[in-house]
């Protein structure tokens, strides 16, 4: 295939010009604010009987795509109008209709608080919540850290995906990798009252085909036993030239329940192999960012691969000791084996798009154990109702990360417009090891005080968190000096909720998040000094509206996160650096009459570096983050053909800087997706057909990436599936 290459340098006169798509998106968002009050009275309430909250059927919004309730850590499942935090829960239907390939596809599709690059072929999922990196390895599975797949997870085994925005160490303990922007909890599927037998066949451009089987049954005199199995397989070429992907997943959920107790067990096994895997591009300082090549260009060797294998299991039980006291516990473990042979750095070195390539490979083994135990109690003290929770969490990680370093001392040369790569480099197993042994233990207490029949609610909480951490380097059989520390700290939280009416709630909170402390490096005057876990602090206020089928959440927040800082005068290392994110968010979802479903919102985040080792960086915008995002997903059920739904989705992101001095910026971008869904019957079997065309205009654009500065956004990608329910 022959391509005309783009102009090398971006046309600065077009850099900030809003596109027609950008304008249309904002018009649509503004239009929805006027239409909602008029049309909402016509919306029908939807109930999803497959999901329960404290034994009651759970209402859902947006034609069954968004749950009325989500998990709030140690506080349990709560509906969003009773929650003094910004939360959203995406249902199994949303996951299916999105034809999601991973968790990022679900949480970033229509939530403007979440930013993801959209690049394909990365070895791990990468996203930001409220402007801070959220590590995929910090995702929770049924309330436990460390059990979900480590780098990427195919979503077929999940019934719901919950997102809680902002730091939340009180609610969940410290995330293993210190994510502070938000918490993601994956809820596995369970057998339902109605037997489930479904098969989905799928296609993804260019030639990737797959299948997914989902079987669920309940047994016993009172249907107290349940079993749910999900198996998925996909293999073939992606929309990127010379790139392929193969994924496999098998999961099994077992449960037993009666009137006062339940016991659940989950097991899974998953693998993924990506050929044509990449880590993105870096760019020399001072260069003008070149125009992107065609979006289907593979900017890494076709032989570069990521190969991962994950397996995990967990059990969870709960017992109602009395009408007012419930005890619960959970325990699980997982193992990840990961091999990668991918260029460790591909750097743009001039304005013509020439590249310098350094090779390397990685082998990782990671074993994790996680658990919690707790008690919930409801009682009154005079006119005050209490919901008291005490819990303890445990997490242990035994990881050995074995990169090889540079496998080609003489860098290769290539070009982004005409990439040419050398032969596959050899892989040196265990050239050196980076063993990490980390144990985290915490104890938490929270009391929600309710007044005047729950109209006023105040939540007070405190968590004690300890971490015992040791890491080292093993090179050529020799053990080099290690980093070792044992530290602890307390994290308080305060939250309040005022229910103005059944449809309006005001809320506010002060919460903290924790990130691993570290030891001052050898170049610091205080070399070897260990630091306790560092606190990220959030203050937030907002309002929630539940308008009989259409929901809104408005939030204002400020988050201050400490960063490592080496004083240029004293050379003393501390956590005196700081990034401060201030933002305003509006998220909405629901139905307008019987014809339209909307999910979307707008988020503005002012992410500023307020203290840095290099004082010239102070006052600058944090890198790899658009300060404005706007997203809108619209579904239209055709009145003349009720079984057919047309789908449109728009995603706008403002410009974002890739360097600390804010001299290199990626331009604003709007991406459009189109699709359709059709409900049919074939020989008495219900079949749902789904078609999605992402990046329908096939825009060529740069985005940012976790490991480097630049990555190509995904090209036009066609997805087609058919789900048959037997």
Report what the structure shows.
- With 726 residues, the protein is mostly beta strands.
- It has a single domain (12-359, 402-428, 548-554, 584-615, 626-725), classed as Maltoporin, Chain A, CATH 2.40.170.
- The chain has four helices and 43 strands.
- A hairpin with a 4-residue loop joins strand 20 and strand 21.
- The radius of gyration is 25 Å and the shape is globular.
- The relative contact order is 0.15.
- Mean pLDDT is 88; it is low at 1-57.
Proportion of strand residues: over 45%
The name of the CATH topology is Maltoporin, Chain A
Query: Judging by the overall fold, what is the CATH architecture?
Result: Beta Barrel
Structural class: mainly beta
Mind telling me the C-alpha Rg? 25 Å
Please report the total strand number as a whole number. Answer: 43
Give the low-confidence spans. 1-57
Name the CATH class: Mainly Beta
Let me know the average pLDDT: 88
Alpha carbon gap, first and last residue = 43 Å
**How many structural domains in the coordinates?**
1
**Total helical elements:** 4
Q: Note the quaternary state here.
A: single chain
Q: How many strands, what sense, and barrel or not for the largest sheet?
A: 22 strands, antiparallel, barrel
In short:
This protein is mainly β and 726 residues long. The chain has a 22-stranded antiparallel beta barrel. It has an eight-stranded mixed beta sheet with strand order 1-2-3-6-12-13-10-11.
């Amino acid at each position: 295939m022959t391509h005309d290459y783009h102009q090398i340098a971006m046309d600065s006169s077009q850099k900030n010009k809003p596109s027609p798509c950008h304008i249309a998106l904002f018009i649509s968002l503004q239009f929805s604010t006027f239409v909602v009050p008029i049309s909402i009275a016509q919306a029908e309430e939807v109930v999803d009987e497959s999901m329960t909250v404290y034994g009651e059927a759970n209402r859902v919004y947006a034609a069954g795509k968004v749950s009325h309730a989500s998990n709030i850590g140690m506080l349990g499942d709560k509906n969003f109008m009773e929650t003094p935090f910004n939360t959203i829960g995406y249902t199994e239907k949303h996951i299916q209709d999105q034809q999601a390939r991973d968790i990022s596809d679900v949480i970033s599709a229509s939530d403007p608080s979440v930013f993801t690059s959209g690049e394909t072929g990365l070895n791990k999922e990468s996203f930001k919540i409220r402007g801070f990196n959220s590590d995929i390895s910090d995702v929770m599975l049924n309330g436990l850290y460390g059990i979900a797949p480590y780098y990427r997870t195919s979503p077929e085994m999940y019934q719901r995906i919950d997102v809680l925005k902002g730091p939340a160490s009180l609610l969940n303990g410290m995330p293993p990798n210190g994510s502070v922007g938000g918490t993601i909890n994956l809820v596995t599927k369970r057998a339902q009252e109605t037997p489930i037998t479904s098969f989905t066949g799928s296609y993804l451009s260019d030639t990737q085909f797959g299948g997914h089987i989902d079987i669920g049954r309940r047994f016993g005199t009172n249907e107290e036993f349940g079993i749910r199995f999900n198996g998925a397989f996909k293999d073939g070429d992606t929309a990127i030239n010379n790139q392929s992907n193969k994924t496999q997943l098998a999961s099994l959920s077992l449960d037993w329940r009666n009137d006062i107790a339940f016991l659940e067990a989950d097991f899974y096994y998953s693998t993924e192999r990506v050929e044509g895997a990449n880590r993105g591009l870096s760019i020399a300082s001072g260069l003008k960012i070149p125009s992107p090549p065609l979006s289907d260009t593979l900017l890494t060797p076709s032989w570069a691969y990521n190969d991962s294998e994950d397996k995990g299991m967990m059990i969870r039980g709960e017992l109602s000791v009395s009408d007012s006291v419930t005890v619960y516990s959970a325990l699980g473990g997982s193992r990840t084996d990961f091999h990668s042979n991918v260029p460790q750095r591909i750097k743009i070195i001039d304005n013509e798009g020439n590249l310098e390539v350094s090779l390397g490979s990685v082998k990782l083994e990671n074993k994790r154990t996680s658990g919690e135990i707790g008690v919930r109690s409801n009682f009154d003290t005079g006119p005050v109702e209490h919901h008291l929770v005490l819990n303890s969490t445990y997490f242990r990680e035994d990881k050995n990360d074995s990169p090889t370093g540079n496998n080609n001392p003489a860098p290769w040369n290539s070009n982004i417009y005409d990439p040419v790569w050398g032969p596959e480099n050899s892989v040196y197993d265990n050239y050196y090891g980076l063993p990490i042994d980390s144990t985290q233990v915490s104890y938490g207490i929270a009391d929600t005080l309710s007044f005047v029949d729950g109209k006023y609610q105040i939540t007070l909480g405190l968590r004690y968190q300890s971490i015992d951490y040791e890491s080292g380097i093993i090179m050529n059989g020799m053990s080099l000096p290690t980093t070792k520390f044992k530290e602890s700290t307390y994290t308080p939280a305060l939250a309040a909720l005022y229910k103005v009416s059944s449809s309006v709630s005001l809320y506010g909170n002060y919460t903290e998040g924790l990130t691993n402390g570290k030891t001052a490096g050898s170049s610091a005057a205080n070399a070897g000094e260990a630091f306790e876990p560092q606190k990220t602090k959030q203050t937030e206020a907002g309002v929630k509206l539940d308008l009989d089928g259409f929901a809104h959440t408005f939030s204002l927040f400020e988050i201050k996160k400490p960063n490592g800082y080496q004083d240029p005068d004293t050379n003393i290392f501390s956590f005196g650096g700081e990034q401060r994110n201030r933002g305003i968010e509006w998220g909405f979802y629901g139905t307008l009459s019987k014809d339209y479903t909307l999910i979307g919102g707008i988020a503005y985040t002012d992410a500023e570096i307020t203290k840095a080792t290099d004082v010239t960086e102070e006052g600058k915008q944090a890198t790899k983050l658009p300060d404005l995002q706007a997203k809108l997903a619209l579904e239209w059920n055709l009145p003349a053909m009720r079984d057919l739904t047309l789908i449109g989705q728009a995603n706008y992101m403002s410009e974002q800087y890739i360097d600390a001095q804010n001299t290199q910026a990626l331009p604003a971008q709007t991406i459009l997706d189109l699709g359709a869904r059709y409900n049919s019957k074939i020989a008495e079997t219900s079949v749902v057909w789904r078609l999605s065309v992402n990046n329908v205009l096939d825009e060529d654009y740069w985005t940012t990436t976790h490991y480097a500065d630049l990555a190509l956004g995904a090209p036009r990608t066609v997805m087609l599936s058919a789900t048959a329910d037997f």
